[in-house]
TIGR03086 family protein (Microbispora siamensis), 200 residues
Amino acid sequence: MDIRELDRRAVQASVEVVAEVRPGDLERPTPCAGWTLADLLAHMTAQHLGFAAAAEGRGADPDAWRERPGPDPVWAYASAAERVTAAFAAEGVLDRGFVLPELAVDAPFPAVHAIGFHFIDYLVHGWDIARTLGIAYDPDPDLAEAAWPIALAVPDGEYRESPGAAFAPSLPAAPEASRFDQILAHLGRTPVHGLTRPSP
C-alpha cells in the first residue's frame, strides 16, 4: 500500500484521539518523559508543519519546524494534520527528497523513507495521547504490520536515553503481544490495556 495512505490513516486516527483533549488535560504527564500533554501536542503540531514544508522543498528552513503555541491546541493540531496530509498527497511528492534537519543529516531523504518516519511517529504518538487520556487506541492490524519493519529499523542504544529522544530504549514484549504492542515495546513504551480516563 502507498505509504501516504498508511500515513493519512495514522494521522487521522491521531486527530480523532486529540479531539478528546479538554483544557484540563493539558498539564497531564505523558509517556514521553518530561513532557506534558500540552508539550506533546505542540511538538506533534510543529512536526506536521515541518514535514509539510519538507514535502514542499522547504525542510531546511528552521522556522518551518518551530513550535507556535496558540490558544486552541486541538484546533491547531487538526489544522496541521490536514496540511501535512495535503502536502504528502501532492503530485510528484514521491519523487522528491525531504530535508529533515532534526536527523542531523544534510542529504535529503527519499520521500518514501521520510513519510515512513512520519508514519511510525504518529502511529505511536497517537497511543501516547490516548494513554495520557486513559482511552482506548487500537490501530488497524494492517497499519501495525506495515509499521513493524519501520519500527525495527529505528536504532536502539544509548542515544535513546538522551533528552528529547523520540523513543525510549526498547523493552521486552510479552510472548502473546500483538504486533502493535510489539512496536510499542520496541520503541520504549509499556502497553497498557483496560484504560479508564482519569478524573480531571
